Structure formats: structure tokens, C-alpha cells
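== Folding the chain ==

***
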Amino acid sequence: MTSSPLSPHPDQPANASHPTPPVDAGHQARTADASHPAPPADASHPAPPADASHAAHPAHLVHTAVALRDLPRSTGARAVVMTMGALHEGHATLVRAARRRVGPEGQVVVTVFVNPLQFGAGEDLDRYPRTLDADVELAAAAGADVVFAPSVDEVYPGGEPQIRIAAGPMGTLLEGASRPGHFDGVLTVVAKLLHLTAPDLAFYGQKDAQQLAVITRMAADLNFPVEIVGVPTVREEDGLALSSRNRYLSGPERCTALALSAALFAARDRLAAEEALRVRAASVGHHPAPDRAAALAALGEDRAAADAHAVAYAAAGVLHGPAVARAAARAVLDDAARLDPPLTLDYLALVDPSDFTEVPDAYEGEAILAVAAKVGSTRLIDNIRLVFGAGRPEATAAQQGGTTTEAADTADTADTADVADAATSATAAPSASPPPPPPSVTSTPPATPPTTPQGPLGAPR
């Protein structure tokens, strides 16, 4: 297994005449937990202002492919943001990223379509929230030019399609195992909407990491002439990843749900501490403990004895890489399972972003730590990107491929004494209580499945 190629920044200018290979992708269209009734729109989160480079204006609302084709095509690139409606700040972030990328001469199309093919047994399609008027307002405020809201008959004339796109082996893992056939429905509607909107670029959120991966793979394998762009996860102030499902959580349920992001952050911070110690263990050398303590003291280190013990632990390699990340995250989730209300874990997986298979303990390179769990009757997912072997040149280069505003993300920012304490207490379980709140909008660096050059599809532009 090898680490994945790096992704360009989603704000990089687009060239409509030269479609580039698909890069990191994700899909912000949410999947439904149909056991919930549709809640009212959240009036406490008004639509955000449009990007400064594109003054807010009413977006054209169209319901048919004919009406969409009849709209004047801009001279610049066209970008599409696909959603299932009930838009929130996460979707607005996607629209703003698309607006910046195509510039004032480009065109941004937002699709709003609740796809029946991705609803499984027991998931009530009829109760999925539909807030089209508010969605149009939010999309326009964020910089969209067009909102395409087709009916089911428009997308699937004659009923459910007899021929669908199969997600393959990747579509049977994790989310696919929990919801059989789900990704076949996702890819079928994405392919149809790509044909109907004919974009140069398509923007998806990285929060749904597995959807991100299967859409990227489909675009590459089937030679769609579109660049797939992934946009970092948006989080609320307490760390919870933005989702339309968050509105279903009661106050106590939300406190428990914070264990998802807390587990991911615990894995990230524990891994950063370990990698920092390994680098320092290599620099100090394999001397007896007293000599090592003296060497650290000569470097001006405080708490030399404790640090020597920590460095010795790192040099011994008792646990490393994936095992450390899994253990740190699992401890937080185990604690959350004892809360009231409890967290019921569906899966915790550390996977290769190219195929979503579990990585071995000796793995080096990029990986995605993904989690899914239920709190009450609400099912939530989250993920974070990790790089194993941070002290090595190839891993360092991969780490620079994405940034994060979450605190203590890299070993360089870790306090020396705190790093020592983290290593000497490797068996201690992190608390299920959430860490200090991260900034209101944070991101995880992009997962980047392999890509292949694009060829013509022959779709009308």
C-alpha cells in the first residue's frame, strides 16, 4: 500500500478548457436516518454572506433539465455542488469554495434532490427534511447562480432505473456494510446529475469520507471529464462535525455525541506525541538511561528523568503508528459507551484511502480514521486524516498536503514535557469528555484516493 497523491487547494483557479484529473472528493449530500420526523429549519443559523468576490443575488431556481439547459452558460467554468437539501453552513462552505474557484466569470450550480435510491429498509424517505425556500436563499447568499431542484420523475423517468452503477468492493465496507446498496444509489444519482449539469468541477465535503472515495473512483474509472474537488470538514464550536442530523440530538445526547470527534482528536494527538518522541529518540541515540538523561539535560531539557523514560519507551517501539491511534480512539469511545445516554459504536476503522481496507500495524503513509455510532436513534459519522511515519521525508511531504486549524495537530507544536507525559502513560485511556472546543470552522486534511487521467465522455457542454 502506498500513500495517496496530494490534492490541489480547492480555491486554485479553474481552467474550463483543460479538465484536470479528479483529485480528492467527498459528497456532502447527507444520508437519511428515516426514523426521525423532519424538524423545522434552524432559525439560529442564518444564511452566511456570499463570497466578497461575488455579490449576493437571487439564484435561478429551475426544476427540469430542459430549463437548466436553456439558461445561458457563463464564459467561465461551471461548478456543481450536490446536496439533498436542508442546507447548513457545511453546504455554504462548499458553495463558497466553488464560487472562489470558478471566479466571477464562472457559474455555480447547486442541486437539491432527495435521492430515493440511497434510502434503505427502515429509512423513511417521506420524513426527510425538505426546506427548498430556505435552501435557495442560503445557496444564493453563499454565491450560487442556479439551484436545480428536480422531481423524482425528472431524475428517474419511468420509475427506478433498471441499470445502476455498482460501487464495487469499496462500496461493501463500513457504511456499505451497515447500509447494503447505499453507495450504488449514491453513484447512480451522482452520475446522472453530472450528466444533467455538465460541470467542469464538482465539489463535495470530506466529512463523508467513503462517499468522497467512491465518487472519486467512479469519475476516474468511468472517465468523467470533470474535476472532483474535496472541501474540508466543517465543525461546530464544540468539535461536532456539521450535519443535518445534529438537530435531532437532545442536550444530553449531544454531549455524548462529542465522543466521536474527541476520539479522533485523541488519536491524532497521541500519534503526534509518539512521532515527536521517536524523532527525539533517534537524535539522542540508544545510550543507557543515565547517559540519555544527561544528553537531554545538556540540551536544556527539564524533567530529564521523565523524558528519558519516555524516549526509552519510544525507542523500544512497544506500540507504534496505527496501534497507537486505534487504542487512543477506542478508549474514548469505550468511556462514552458508559455515559447516559450511551454511545453505541457501529465501527471504528483505520483505512487506506485508496480502497477503504484496514491498514496493518506496520503501515506508513496516509490513512483515514473513521467512526460511526448511534446516540439515541441518531446515527452519526466522522473521520480524520492521519499520516504515519511523520519523521520520514515521504510522510512529511504528505502531511504538508493539507492543513488544519485544530489545536496541537503536529508534533512541532507539542510541549516537551507534555509529550513525555503522553508517552509514559500510553496505557491510560483518554477521557470521553470533549477536549477544549476547537475553532468554529475546522478542517481535516483531505483523503486522496489515486486518480487516473480523464478522457472524453461525449456529454454536451
Notes: The first helix runs from residue 65 to 70. Residues 37 and 127 are 5 Å apart (CA to CA). The radius of gyration is 23 Å.
